[in-house]
Amino acid sequence: MDIRVIEERLRRLNKCVGKVQNYSQMTLQDYQEDENVQDIVERNLQLSIQCCIDIGSYIISRQRLKVPDDEENVFVILGENQVISNELAQKVKGMIKFRNILVHDYLEIDSIRVHKIITNGLRDFDQFAKEVIGYL
């Protein structure tokens, strides 16, 4: 396994989460009124989630773990194989559905949900990175 592949994606994850973190103190009203901020936040959340998926898929491939039958199960397989904790795997497996909304169902993005994520949910990305680093 080429650790540099994972490190590069972890750096990108950190950068994207940092951009989102810049808006974590915004009120819901301020967030909803600023479409430029929404664009920045949504894109960087999408990229953050994709980084996690890519890291997970790379580890699964290189470690020859069970191939997930659905992209959503990438995190479940990581949990089953102690790459990340089962607790974290259960928390983050919903990220893929959210990423799909950001990419494909962009007309239905719930700004209240996004605001909740940026004010409360960014810790999951940090925990994912820490657990992957611990696994390596």
TrEMBL record:
<dbReference type="InterPro" id="IPR008201">
    <property type="entry name" value="HepT-like"/>
</dbReference>
<dbReference type="GO" id="GO:0110001">
    <property type="term" value="C:toxin-antitoxin complex"/>
</dbReference>
<dbReference type="InterPro" id="IPR037038">
    <property type="entry name" value="HepT-like_sf"/>
</dbReference>
<dbReference type="GO" id="GO:0004540">
    <property type="term" value="F:RNA nuclease activity"/>
</dbReference>
<dbReference type="GO" id="GO:0016787">
    <property type="term" value="F:hydrolase activity"/>
</dbReference>
<dbReference type="Pfam" id="PF01934">
    <property type="entry name" value="HepT-like"/>
</dbReference>
<dbReference type="InterPro" id="IPR052379">
    <property type="entry name" value="Type_VII_TA_RNase"/>
</dbReference>
<comment type="similarity">
    <text>Belongs to the HepT RNase toxin family.</text>
</comment>
<keyword id="KW-0378">Hydrolase</keyword>
<keyword id="KW-1277">Toxin-antitoxin system</keyword>
<keyword id="KW-0540">Nuclease</keyword>
<protein>
    <submittedName>
        <fullName>DUF86 domain-containing protein</fullName>
    </submittedName>
</protein>
